[in-house]
Amino acid sequence: MMAYCLQQIANAVPVAALYAALAFGYSLAFAMTRRADLVYGALFAFAGQIFLLFAGFGWSQFYLVLPAALAFGAASAAAYAVIAGVWVGRTVMLPLHRAAPNTLIVASLAVLVVIAETGRLALDSRGLWLPNFLGHRVVFLAIDGFEVSLTVIQIVNSALMLLLVLVGQIVLKRGRAGRVWRAVCDDPRAAALCGVDAGRAFILAYATASAIAALCGILATSYYGTMDFGAGLMFGLKVILIAAAGGHGNPGGSAAGAAAIGAAETFWNGYGPILWRDPVIISVLVVFLVMSRRERIVP
Questions:
Q1: pTM (2 decimals)?
Q2: In 3D, which of 84, 79, 89 has the Cα closest to residue 37?
Q3: For the chain, which residues make up each domain, given as ranges?
Q4: CA dihedral 79, 81, 84, 86 (to 10 degrees)
Q5: Is 293 helix (H, G, I), strand (E, B) or coil?
Q6: Which pLDDT does position 297 carry in this prediction?
């Protein structure tokens, strides 16, 4: 029983790291708009799909070895996702944020459909799968014949995502970029009066969030082996709620809250009926958000 519990703790690490990184990136963009944005989840899924497409293309058409094909797919996915994110931020989100902020929610749903359909058409509605790699187990502990372990790719993915959150938090707390980001989030007009280009800061925040979504999409696809066409909407809605657990406008707090939700999901998988996992987790999040809400009017 103790070994099984330890295994669940180990299993929680990759999920918590993924949720933390996703929530951190989402908070960077949300703090600018203060509106729910489904585009982030769409970029996460889009990056995974482009990764599959170009990795397969490099393998079958360019006859690259597997590491080179994966690198080619990852670079292409990151480029496509960031370019798409910057374009959406510059041409859709920033103008709407300045003119009618509440329309961002509807616009993000429309952009999600466009990105999801683009990925589906690019893959010709096929479900592509990556070969298993870095899948051998690393055993941490053995108790009465039960081995507590993770695969190499789980360890690598968790380390990269946690490092991303740590470096991002340091930059936000100590770097000039973090000070500019906080100033524009608090009051873009006042920041502009102090010489800060609020529009440029908005685009950079959106580009950074897009890059984080792309990295998470690539790493998640590397582990799970595929990326579903409907994952954009699912993760978009899920990240919105999960990031709120630690405070939408606080990337570090959002990451910590998301990690806690990831750990809770893992333990539910280990001890409860999986069918009820998402309804219970989402219901708890909704109740928590309602109970902890202090603002009565959305500016």
A1: 0.93
A2: 89
A3: 2-292
A4: -80
A5: coil
A6: 42
CB-based contact 150:13 (threshold 8 Å): yes
Strand-pairing partners, residue 147, are 142
CATH number of 2-292: 1.10.3470
Half-sphere exposure of 214 (CA within 13 A, CB side): 22
pLDDT at 293: 62
Q: Where are the alpha helices (DSSP H) in the chain?
A: 2-33, 39-60, 66-88, 94-99, 103-122, 152-174, 176-186, 188-193, 198-224, 231-244, 251-271, 277-292
Predicted pLDDT of residue 299: 43
| pLDDT less than 50: residues of the chain | 296-299
Residues 266 and 75: their CA atoms lie apart, in Å, by 31
Rounded distance between C-alpha atoms, residue 294 and residue 299, angstroms: 13
- 153: tokens are 């790719």
The pLDDT assigned to 290 comes to: 76
